[in-house]
Amino acid sequence: MSEKSKNRNYESGILINKAQKGKYNNPDAASKIKGYILGEKGSSKENRKDIIHYGAYGTIDFLDTDLITEQFLDIQKCHVRHCKNKRYADHEVFVFAEEDGIILKRNPNYISSISEKMASIISDGEFQTFYGVHNGDMYDENYPETSGKMHIHFLVNPVSFKTLKKRQENFSATEKHELQLQNLIRTEIDEIKKQRRTKITALQ
Angle 196-199-201 (CA atoms, 0-180°, nearest 5)? Predict the structure, then answer.
């Protein structure tokens, strides 16, 4: 573990960047990641339906989820590649702290709004993002770090729909987003607890 990693607050949830050198370099990368997130036929997660919510930020998602990845490629066609590293997708996973995950499972009506806010952070307001929340009840040998814990997958278009420039993918960016997500979750969980206390008081 690096010195930078030692300073990360894992108790508040952790953001995992799944990108590796040479990974997601095929045009169908986004489609495959989306298929995994949704547990679609042909994916490694087929028939293992542990997804509890999904949506998209910066792209149309209510017609057909296949349209999302098509929009990714449409944006990427406008980008002039200056190197051989053709990354067609970014994939990040935020694993909720155990207690936070339990609270969200008990209060599922908050999941939609919270996950959308999380996606807006990951998108930086310019990168199309598809996301899916998994309850984490199933063990997945491909993602052992998420097994048993509620988590959310982010599929991100690495090309900006505003500038058509490439998304910077490095440890600093991951660390920044992780802290932003942790702060958001802390605020949202505190609000859930506050509203619950108010309801209990009203019943007394």
Answer: 110
* pLDDT: which is higher, 77 or 157: 157
pTM: 0.87
DSSP per-residue codes, 90-127: EEEEEEPPHHHHHHHHH-GGGHHHHHHHHHHHHHTTTS
pLDDT-derived band at 67, boundaries 50, 70, 90: confident
The strand pairing partners of 92, in sequence order, are 17, 154
Q: What is the pLDDT of residue 108?
A: 94
Rounded to the nearest 5 degrees, what angle is found at the Cα of 27, between the Cα atoms of 22 and 30? 85
Name the nearest CA neighbour of 87 among 1, 151, 159.
Answer: 159
pLDDT, tens digit, 9 for 90 and up, residues 141-189: 766 777 788 999 999 999 999 998 889 878 899 999 999 999 999 999 9
- Structure-block tokens of residue 191: 């609000």
| Integer angstrom CA distances of residue 35 from 22, 72, 168 | 20, 15, 25
* CB distance 61 to 130 below 8 Å: yes
The tokens describing 93, both together, are 């996973």
